[in-house]
Amino acid sequence: MSLFLRDYLNVVWFGIAALAIGGLLLGLASAIRPSKPNYDKSMAYESGVDPVGIGWSQSQIRYYVFALLFVIFDVEAVFLFPWAASIERYGTFGLVAMLIFIVLLLDGLIYAWKRGLLRWV
Q: Domains in the chain, ordered, with CATH?
């Protein structure tokens, strides 16, 4: 076996060991913990207030879309910082590539705005 594959074999062995130790500890904890179930423990906790109604409610999709748009523009910031820190190294090619990236993201933002996805109410 080559040295390259032997390094990956070490990673596999450590992964198997980690899963085995984690499973062993979780099994041991479930075996020795006290178990006294009752109604109060299985009831939903709402900041000390007794729950009202059922625990299921339907959410509107716009909250998820809003969260996804936040994640997209947060990732944009993650890509902009390293580029801005070393702009001299990338030169004109880096500037053009980042402008294309920003234009594509702005296109997505304009599309979401025109579709009305940024309205909160």
A: 3-114 (1.20.58)
